[in-house]
Each structure stands twice: as C-alpha cells, then as structure tokens.
Amino acid sequence: MWKKLEKQTKFVIVLVIVALIAIAGIGIYHSFHPPITTAIKQPHPKKKTSKKDVVVEKKKEEETTPSSSSTTSSPTKQEETPSNPPSNKTAENSPTTSSSQKDTKTKKSTTPSQEKNQSTPTPQTNNNNQNQTKQTTQSQPVQEEPVEEKIHLTITGINQNYYDHDMTMKEGATAYSILTDTGLPYTKTGFGSATYVRSINGLYEKDHGPLSGWMYKVNGVAPNVSAASYHLKKGDQVVWYYVNYN
Amino acid sequence: MSGTTSTIIKYRPVKEIALIGLLSAFNIASRIGLQALPNVKPVTSIIILCVILFGLDFAFKVTVVTTVVSNIFLGMGIWTFFQILAWFVICILTEILVRLFHIREDKPHYMLMACFSFVMGYVFGFVVSLDQFLIGGLGLFIPYYLNGLLFDTFHAVGNFFFYLMLAPILYKIFEKDLKKSEQYH
C-alpha cells in the first residue's frame, strides 16, 4: 500500500506525521511548564502609582484613602482613633467618604484653575482636606450605614469627574458591569474576558493621541485582566480613569 | 485488473491543474460566500470526494490552494497552517478508510460516507484547536476545544448535508472519466 503512493504524497504524509508529533511534544511540554500564567495579583491598598500622567488619579486616591477600612497608617487615622471609640470603626468611615466626596465636588466646581496645575499635588491641599474631614466627622452624628455592601466608583475624565458615588453591591458585579448603573453612555468592543471599554461619556480612546484611553483600578491597583472578568468584592474602590501616555 | 487496484481518475498534468483550479475556486467561493453561516461549508465534503475520485495527492493540492487563497480574503494567521494540517489529516483518514474497505472498486456507500464526513467535522475542529495546545498546553487547549464543540457540530452537520448534495453531482460529472480509467487498469 505504501509503495504504490507517489513520492510527493509520501513526503506530505511524513510531514503531517512529523508536524503532529511536534505539536504533541511542544504541547505536552507546555502543559507541564505553562507559559501563560493567569494569576491575578492581590490588591494592595497601600501601593500608589508614581506615574506623572496619572496625577489626577493619584490625587483622587489620596483623598479616598482615609475612607478605606483597611489598616492604613495615615496620620489622620491615628489622630482620629483616640477621640472616637474603636468599636464602630466602620461606621465612622462612611461620613468620611461622603464628606471627602463633597469636598472634591465643591473644590472642583469652585476652583477649576487649581485643577490645571495638578502635576504637583501640594501637601497644603491635602492637609486642608484632612482637616476638613476631621471636622466633619466630629460634628456629624455617627450614622449606621453598612459600608461593606457598597462599592465606590469614580470615573475620572480629563480634569473632571464624570461620576463619584457609592453604589450598592450586586451579585456577581464586575468592574465593567457597574458602568451600566452609572447612567453614563459608554461603548465597548468584545465580550467576556476580551471586553474593552472604548469610551465613557463621549470621551473616546485615542482622542488625545494614540496612547490615550480608559483604564481602571481597584483599590489603587490596576489589575492585569479585563474589566468584565474582574469580580468585585464588598467595599472595593473602583476608579475608571482616562490616561494619556503621550 | 487485480483485485485491490484502486480506480482513481488520472488526468494529464494540464487537465489536472485546470481541475484543481476549478474545485479550489468552488471551495474559495463557498468559503467567502457562506461567511455568514459559521462553519457550514462544502469544503470538507469536496476534499473527501476528491480523495475518493482523484486520489490523495490531488486532494492535497486542492487543500493547499483552497486554504491559502481563501485566507488571503478571510485573514492569514497561524490557523492557516493548522487548517491545512487538519484537511491533510482528513485526506489521510479518508484514504485509509477507502483502502481498508476497497470502496473505490464499487461506488462507495452513500450514507456511510455521509456519516464519515459528519465525523470529519469534529476531527477538523480538533486539529485546528491544536494550535492552542501548541501555545499554552492542556490548560489552554481543553477550554478552547470545549468552547468550539458547538461550531464543530455546525461543521459536521454541514458536511453531512453537503456530502448528500455533492456526491451524486460529482459522480455524474466524472462518470465517463471513471469508466475510462477503469478500463485502463
């Protein structure tokens, strides 16, 4: 049977067999030494990015860090804890968040000129901010609000916030799915683990050069998976921000 | 004529090239024209019929021309190599089946070959999915292949019906040549 075949046909058959053996060999090697690791980094709340382009983001983060219930060793925390009883730690956080939000909002509306020189966030503004939050926490009565059921979402465009509110945690919420609850228009391409957000509120990727677009952070860390496959936990701080690496 | 000689149609080189061009053109046109239907293409059925009628090397040539030219339109990539490999494997499997059961001496059983082309849909999907096995090992291959099983089913069902449709037509077209080549043996 084999001898009757033409020479080129034999050559092709040998080639196919060699190719299949090679694929099997490399595949078995790759099954034991997987070249693609799909491990997700553990979110680390203390970590802060030092990129110059994401200063808007950085500022946001600094403002929201006092509200995170994790054990951040910021000076405000240490100042606050002696005055308040340590038992209702979570309860005291909620007014801080809301106050800091209000703070940012008022600041944004009143002093837009300050927004433009964001490249060096001065410690002065930070101190002011912290003082204000401290005052408000002391003045306001302690509210019983379940902070753990909430997700805080901030959508930061260029020099302005499109969205900055708490939202209730839904079952199986991902960093992408919470965008629908904001009411802002957005476009995306792909689906599942290949979802890519192209625009939010009319601000498109590549509008400000080829290296600009939307990114997201959860608790200050940019995950290396698609937003639609990142499942959120209770009390996560999600930030969608527009970057420009040009 | 000894018992096991296969009766495949042999043409002069010029006529063979013309026929390869025609059959590949049909395959390419069908692949581009039926883009809307996922995997429902007559290509695999045509290649199986090519192996039965014209032999293994003819089917290899049709495969290469079909894949390379249609992927110029549909998109080149690593999958081009794996599609060629998959159809080569189908050619070889068909040849083995044909030789084992001496199908060429008689007209091959109509429904049996249709069922065989149904199975070949899954074989094609398996071999094409092997590129993920090459890249990422079993961890990547198994989910990729399981996700593609539905589309392999489309391919298999398409093969089944296209074989039922095309086999009588091609046998009728090449009836004369088939009889002539039987006389030579």
Automatic annotation (TrEMBL), chain A:
Fetch the InterPro entries from UniProt: Transcobalamin-like_C
The cross-references to Pfam families, in alphabetical order and at most eight, read: DUF4430
Q: Which UniProt keywords apply?
A: Membrane, Transmembrane, Transmembrane helix
Q: Where is the Transcobalamin-like C-terminal domain?
A: 172-243
**Region feature (Disordered):** 38-147
Answer whether the UniProt record assigns the keyword Transmembrane to this protein.
yes
Q: Tell me the protein's name.
A: DUF4430 domain-containing protein
Q: Where is the composition biased (Low complexity)?
A: 65-76, 109-144
Q: Where are the transmembrane segments?
A: 12-32
Q: What is the lineage of its organism?
A: Bacteria, Bacillati, Bacillota, Erysipelotrichia, Erysipelotrichales
Which residue intervals are annotated with compositional bias (Basic and acidic residues) in the record?
A: 51-63
Cleavable signal peptide: none
